[in-house]
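Record 1 of the preview.
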Amino acid sequence: MIDSHCHLADEKFRDDLEPVIARAKEAGLQGALVILEGGNAAEAEQARRVEQLWPAVRTAIGVHPHISHEYAADPEQAAAVVRAALDATPSARAVGEIGLDYHYDFSPREVQQRVFRAQLRLARDRGLPVVIHTREAEDDTLTLIREEGGGEVRGVLHCFTGTAALARAALDLGFFVSLAGIVTFPKAAALRETAKLVPLDRLLTETDSPFLAPVPHRGTRNEPALVAAVVAALAADRRIPAADLAARTTDNYRALFAP
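->
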């Protein structure tokens, strides 16, 4: 079992990182992909602690759309920061999370797009997969992936909450689709139906911890061990054993991120 997207380098895990990782191992996790913000020295330092405690973890590094405004004057600098972080991080396996967020609009949309483009080009040049964040920006996200990825960039739509059309479009691009704790929420019936459209060989599971704890832990801090609840929910919907789904998603993680 794998948590394909978590934020263990977040300050919310600073004081109890060891027991959090111990619980993940006890839950049967074979590894996790830890998401880092390019240029964030505090996260880079904590990531080194995570790697010491859990050598099986790998990392993805990117500039999130929320902070794209920091690179408004020179969007290419975002890619330069990520490039330097990738070079300094042997565990790095992907560029991300990157993308567009038109829900919060913490950064101007045009700036988000330019920063996203720069990082897609970096991923293409490096031959690395991308971890995509998209919210209320599906059309533009797909357009930029097509334009800058050139059919060469593979990756995953993380914490998927979109429509069946978005899922199909991502699959057509060769992308994976990752589900988080939201699929366990009582009002997520439509998402669970959409999730069934994703072939088992394109499915990933994640926590996005410390956010979005699954039922029955909703409202608490999320952590990698709780990806088991996501696996169980998806397996129940497909009427297959949870162990089978865990094995398939673990294989998918390894195929995408070559850990």
